[in-house]
């Protein structure tokens, strides 16, 4: 949820990695998992879905 929230802020993988003190590659894996689980094609779609559902 934390990575999804940061996607909603429009942050890049590198910026998310810096914020969470993890590698950009780790963030890339999390983003891929989020897109798959939410069945969306883009970061923007994932963020929009989360906003519409009231997740953040």
TrEMBL record:
InterPro entries: Sig_transdc_resp-reg_C-effctor, Tscrpt_reg_LuxR_C, WH-like_DNA-bd_sf. Residues 1-54 form the HTH luxR-type domain. Signal peptide: none annotated. Keywords: DNA-binding, Transcription, Transcription regulation. PROSITE patterns: HTH_LUXR_1, HTH_LUXR_2. This is LuxR C-terminal-related transcriptional regulator. It comes from Mesobacterium hydrothermale.
């Amino acid at each position: 949820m934390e990575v999804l929230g940061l996607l909603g802020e429009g942050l890049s993988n590198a910026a998310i990695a810096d914020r969470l003190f993890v590698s950009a590659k780790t963030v890339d894996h999390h983003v891929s998992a989020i897109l798959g689980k939410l069945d969306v094609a883009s970061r923007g779609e994932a963020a929009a879905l989360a906003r519409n559902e009231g997740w953040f």
